[in-house]
TrEMBL record:
This is dITP/XTP pyrophosphatase. The lineage of its organism: Bacteria, Bacillati, Bacillota, Bacilli, Bacillales. GO terms for cellular component: cytosol. Its EC number is 3.6.1.66. It holds the Pfam family Ham1p_like. It catalyses: XTP + H2O = XMP + diphosphate + H(+); dITP + H2O = dIMP + diphosphate + H(+); ITP + H2O = IMP + diphosphate + H(+). HAMAP family: Non_canon_purine_NTPase. Pyrophosphatase that catalyzes the hydrolysis of nucleoside triphosphates to their monophosphate derivatives, with a high preference for the non-canonical purine nucleotides XTP (xanthosine triphosphate), dITP (deoxyinosine triphosphate) and ITP. Seems to function as a house-cleaning enzyme that removes non-canonical purine nucleotides from the nucleotide pool, thus preventing their incorporation into DNA/RNA and avoiding chromosomal lesions. InterPro entries: dITP/XTP_pyrophosphatase (IPR020922), ITPase-like_fam (IPR029001), RdgB/HAM1 (IPR002637). Homodimer. The keyword Hydrolase applies. It comes from Alteribacter lacisalsi.
Length: 198
């Protein structure tokens, strides 16, 4: 396999997939490269449902192997919110800045020991003629009281990674790609790699 289509329009995700597949000499394309990609409505109740929905809709239309990523942040003090609504937490239009500010507001007054959270990534793989499969990676951390760091995307400036003693947005992309929820799901995918490339 020399090329894989990632069913995402998120440039931050695309960069992370490119880093993973570059090592395997596989070229990454995404919906950002297509002229009129199908718009898939993400109305599933779980990350897995949405990931499979994206992978199958795009994969069937393209007739190609496709990987889709549905991911987000689960905050314990908010009963798991924003969860599957992470991309549009502060409103319909995707806006990382507004989402971060809303999260800070919702977490006002929550003491440090109750600020536990995790990033979750469900990766669905669609192979033409086969059933899809889906894998999950998670990364545990804490929601900080202010934003810090310039790297990454989404909620990275508010997500403290205890093992690194840094915010996710302070890590280099190489560091993030060793420990993130997406990296962990990709490690599981690597274990299934033979199935994928057969
Ligand atoms: O659906 P696609 O086109 O892939 O792009 P999206 O941005 O809408 O992606 P999701 O539907 O999976 O929503 C995930 C949201 O969760 C957040 N998120 C996911 N992974 C993240 C990461 O590694 N770092 C920070 N925030 C992340 C971010 O706000 C994303 O917009
Ligand atoms: Mg989305």
């Amino acid at each position: 396999m020399s090329e894989v289509l990632i069913a995402t329009k998120n440039p931050g995700k695309v960069k992370e997939f490119e880093a993973f597949f570059a090592e395997k000499d596989i070229k990454v394309r995404s919906l950002l490269d297509l002229e009129e990609p199908e718009d898939v409505i993400e109305d599933g109740e779980t990350f897995e449902d949405n990931a499979v929905k994206k992978a199958e809709a795009i994969g069937k239309a393209a007739g190609l192997p496709v990987i889709a990523d549905d991911s987000g942040l689960e905050v314990d003090a908010l009963n798991g919110a924003p969860g599957v609504y992470s991309a549009r937490y502060a409103g319909k239009e995707k806006n990382d800045e507004a989402n971060n500010l809303k999260l800070l507001r919702e977490m006002e007054g929550v003491p440090p020991e109750k600020r536990t959270a995790r990033f979750v990534c469900a990766l669905a793989v669609y192979l033409p003629g086969n059933r899809s499969f889906v894998l999950r990676g998670t990364c545990e951390g804490l929601i900080a009281e202010e934003r810090k760091g310039e790297h990454g995307f989404g909620y990275d400036p508010l997500f403290y990674v205890p093992s690194s003693e840094k915010m996710m947005a302070e890590l280099t992309s190489e560091e993030k790609n060793t420990l993130s929820h997406r990296a962990k799901a990709l490690q599981l995918l690597e274990e299934k790699w033979d199935l994928f490339t057969e």
